[in-house]
Amino acid sequence: MPALNQERPDPDALLARIQQEEQAALRGKLRIYFGSNAGVGKTCAMLTAAKREAALGRDVLAGLVETHGRVETADLLHGLEQLPRATLLHREFAHSEFDLDAALLKHPAVVLVDELAHSNAPGSRHPKRWQDVEELLSAGIDVWTTLNVQHLESLNDLVSGIIGIRVRETIPDHVFDNAHEVVVIDLPPDDLLQRLKEGKVYLGPAAARASRHFFRKGNLLALRELALRRTADRVDQQMRTYRRERSINTLWPARERLLVGIAGDSGDERLVREAARLAQKLEADWIVVHVATHQGRGAKRYLTAMKTLTLASEFGADTATLPGMDVAEALAACAREHNANRLVLGHHPRQPWRLWHQSVSDRISRHHPHIDQIVIAHGLLPGKPPAFEKVAPQPGTRLAYLWASLACFAASAIAALLLQVFDLANVVMLFLLTVVLVALRYGRGPGVWAAMLAVLCFDFFFVQPRYSFTVTDTQYFFTFALMLGIALITGQLTARLRHEARTAAARERRATSLARLARDLSAALTVEQISEVALRTFSGVFEARVGLALPDAADGVHSAGAGGLPIDDSIAQWAYDHSQAAGHGTDTLSAAKGCYLPLKAPMRVRGVLVLELAQSERLNDPQERRLLEACMSQLAIALERVHFVEVAQSTLVQIEGEKMRNTLLAAISHDLRTPLTTLIGAADTALPHA
């Protein structure tokens, strides 16, 4: 029977997926016709598909289709039921918009809504058309729509840098990512320019103006690449979700993705630089990870790994720290999770006294032969032989081994007293208990030392002849071997349990911190309350002095909240204006004591958070950095929520004031109309007698 490539799915994940599928079954399906530019044929492709569906008997309604005066687009509308547009008056101008209520009332199977990123006229139910589409989907109606790549929010800055124009109408990326189907409509730039010349994109002077500015071949090529890459990213995410839901462990090399494993050695920087060059040549995504095994390697190696991860993030890599007792298995699991088809490792020379030791690369090759590996040698000076790294034990490590030794001697003393009551075989269990306690308290290394020392103490103090390592009864050799094996196994299992408990505690701390912050921010109704929650939460979670700077009506940033960290307004203003971190630990104004971090909300930057950490290297840990980013995102969203509440209240006051003004004018005009009518009538009567 062939070996299965799939393991049993996680029951909790399976239940969550079933619940999501049940909810999705009640919603309509969104199909997006996606292209790089106007004129590539998105609307025509949508109408052609709609006519095929209508011919098969499906209820298709053309809710809103923009023809822009194109004859070929208007011809495709013939035969489709069209929804009359709603007319909205704003400042004495009539605007025709999509009639959402009429579409909901008709409730067709499919409704066509062109130009998803369109901004609705004032007075509409929703400010954006994509919000109208969300309401249609919630009502169980399928929606087909069109979208250009420049209207995606995450690509807005890139597009403005390419074409030199800031696109104002955008949609959140989650609308695109959650679409049921994305149909890419692609056209080569030369063909698109030819269509522009033939008047099939814009008409009249607009076509000439577009050819001089937006529709240049370089712009079209760049936008075409962006559209194809963004679609590929979406498909890649769908594939990874499919693999995760079905617990597929085999790698599918559909896309180049590198996983770089670092060990905390001095040669890791060269490894990262080589991997960066390789990723650039392959045009591949890459992830740099460090497996924190906590095997007594010392804090120095861990700090070195954190600095290397910071360097990798500057090169554009994703970074992470992985908890695990086995480096090879942790890297293999990470490669399966991210579908990384190449594993990049550094070459570590085998030390002469560890002939039985297998390298990480050898173990992965043996147990996971389907993972391709690239092994890069550490850099050495010319003529210099390779030197084995000697990691000096840290003071805390020395103390742990000292306590392990004292515990074994104390167990020997207690065993000498118990030997007067119990047999020698029962006293052995006391040494095993000592090994377990040492491993539980101090970890794997001291546990191994305690196991060997316990055997030696048992032999020296309790086996005849006493106070000598000489053994007369050969049966004790079996006892020693069995005792050492049991002690090592129990010690290793206990050390692993201790490591997993610490990892779970760290994860629980991060999850609890986020949940508590989300709860407190959801209850905050004013900016002052949000500032108080931020100062309290960030100072407790990150052990730092915290300050918060918020913008005023003129976008000038000033300190908010009493009792916070003193803030340099000029640095905070720079971080706010440029949406970049500044201050300590950054490349900008690094002499400052605090780190100034912009609070980026979905719409814009809402303020600046200032942190003065007690341990400045704490944010080098990717997990701590991600926790900070998640907390900052929660804070920024809360500030944006309060801002829009204030805007809504101000708008409501203005609306009520406008209603009162209209009522007053109507009353005055009514009171004046009667006397004026009387005067006009009297004047008309008196005129013939004049």
Q: Could you provide a short overview of the structure?
A:
This protein is of the alpha/beta class and 690 residues long. It contains 21 helices and 18 strands.
What's the SSE blueprint?
Blueprint: H1 11-26, E1 30-35, H2 42-55, E2 60-64, H3 71-77, E3 81-82, E4 86-90, E5 93-97, H4 100-106, E6 110-113, H5 129-138, E7 142-148, H6 156-163, H7 173-177, E8 181-184, H8 189-197, H9 205-212, H10 217-245, E9 257-262, H11 268-282, E10 285-292, H12 299-314, E11 318-323, H13 327-338, E12 342-347, H14 360-367, E13 372-377, H15 395-418, H16 424-442, H17 444-462, H18 475-523, H19 527-542, E14 544-551, E15 557-560, H20 569-578, E16 582-583, E17 595-600, E18 605-613, H21 622-686
Parallel strand pairs: 1-7, 1-8, 2-3, 2-6, 6-7, 9-10, 9-12, 10-11, 12-13
Antiparallel strand pairs: 4-5, 14-15, 14-18, 16-17, 17-18
Structural class: alpha/beta
Rounded mean pLDDT score: 78
The strands making up the biggest β-sheet line up spatially as 3-2-6-7-1-8
Backbone CA Rg: 35 Å
Helix content: 40-55%
